[in-house]
Amino acid sequence: MVRSGRGGRRNKKFSSLSTVLSKVVNKYGIEKRLREHTFMSMWSHVVGEPWASLSRPVFFDYERNLVVAVKDSAVAQELSLRKHDILTNLHKMARSVGINLKGLRFDIKGYSRLKILEEQIAAEALLRESGGTQGPREPSREELAVLELNPEELAELENFKENLAPSEVSSRFFEIYERDLRRRAWLQRNASLVSGNCGSCGNAELRLHGENRLCGPCFVVSAAFLKDKNA
Predict the structure, then answer these.
(1) In which residue ranges of the chain is pLDDT below 70?
(2) Cβ neighbours of residue 61 under 8 Å, at least 6 residues apart?
(3) pTM of this structure
(4) Of all helices (H) and strands (E), which one includes residue 72?
(5) Residue 94 CA, distance from chain mean position
(6) What is the C-alpha to C-alpha distance for residues 222 and 153, in angstroms, rounded to an integer?
(7) Which of 102, 110, 140, 215 minimizes the number of CB atoms within 10 Å of its CB?
(8) CA separation for the pair 94, 102 (Å, rounded)
């Protein structure tokens, strides 16, 4: 009878986990955004320097090509010569994080504007974190490290880890994803510091940009998309 009771508790626990995972699946829009952000964060590991500093992956177009902003035609030409090898590595990484990647496209227009936007957003975040303004600040690494994740967040993290294909960069993938998930969890627990939810991805953010009130990454992607659309 005791064994049966324990088995019942195990089954109940399993059912609870299944319920949590279902909630995670229902939130795939946010999870997909995190996966894409994690994937694009690995660009520098693929191309190396100096090309990593002269290019920036910004969004996926409607054909699921990764659009990469490049500084000038010389950078575009060099990366184009290496396109086959770059795509081979990108496809492996995309499969590791469950991203559908069809191809790669380089965009010369808008690179300078993107860099300015990124630098402004990064400078504002650094200033807030250092206490240089009265506005909301970014959470510290220590705060994120000690943050207790709830069962749903732990399930999302475990789900990502289990579906991560074995590779030499898998640990880096997981590190980036966990950091972003913890930051999102921290923002949810500190609602008084949050400016609102991004008009694109729906994530809570410390500061929103533009008329559509977008988070930093979505604001950069939006600017790049408009440049590409109007080209």
Answers:
(1) 1-31, 110-136, 165-169, 220-221, 223-231
(2) 67, 105, 228
(3) 0.60
(4) none
(5) 13
(6) 28
(7) 140
(8) 10
